[in-house]
User: Which sequence fits this backbone?
């Protein structure tokens, strides 16, 4: 009995969590907003978080990404999910992704306290990132650049998002 249970406990020690990465950081969004009645480009600041299963199959992974960016005139919320591919080198890694999701744009009107016009539409984000390792579990996301194609209030918009922050790894890698 003791030998039987020892082999079971050893097998339990070898099982590990799958690889999971969590990113959090600063995000800057340049939004083409002339169709919405603003100047050509509105600059929005905010944050971004992402949860990734990086190694589903030989460098191919899946990521879920959310960001919120704000200015005095409008807000933009993005929610994405999609595939990514990772190339790992000795002192950095490069990741490319194509994400699909929703973009919600909310206009802020001075003097209105109850109603702020909002529109949620489909959106696509194409981009990538460069990560620099600080150790086995912590990485610095030096830059993440995304081109976002979205629409709001019946007009198509081009957006560019730059992000930077920290990536924390959990599980086996």
Assistant:
């Amino acid at each position: 009995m003791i030998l039987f249970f020892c082999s079971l406990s050893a097998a339990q020690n070898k099982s590990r969590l799958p690889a999971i990465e969590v990113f959090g950081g600063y995000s800057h969004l340049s939004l083409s907003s002339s169709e919405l009645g603003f100047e050509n480009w509105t600059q929005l600041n905010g944050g971004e978080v992402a949860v990734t299963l990086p190694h589903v199959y030989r460098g191919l992974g899946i990521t879920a990404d959310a960001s919120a960016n704000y200015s005095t005139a409008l807000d933009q919320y993005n929610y994405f999910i999609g595939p990514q591919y990772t190339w790992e080198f000795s002192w950095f890694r490069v990741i490319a992704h194509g994400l699909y999701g929703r973009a919600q744009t909310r206009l802020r009107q001075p003097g209105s306290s109850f109603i702020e016009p909002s529109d949620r539409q489909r959106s696509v984000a194409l981009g990538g990132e460069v990560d620099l390792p600080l150790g086995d579990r912590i990485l610095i996301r030096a830059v993440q650049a995304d081109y976002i194609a979205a629409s709001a209030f019946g007009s198509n918009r081009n957006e560019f998002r730059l992000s930077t922050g920290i990536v924390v790894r959990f599980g086996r890698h």
Q: What stands out?
A: The chain has one domain: 17-170.
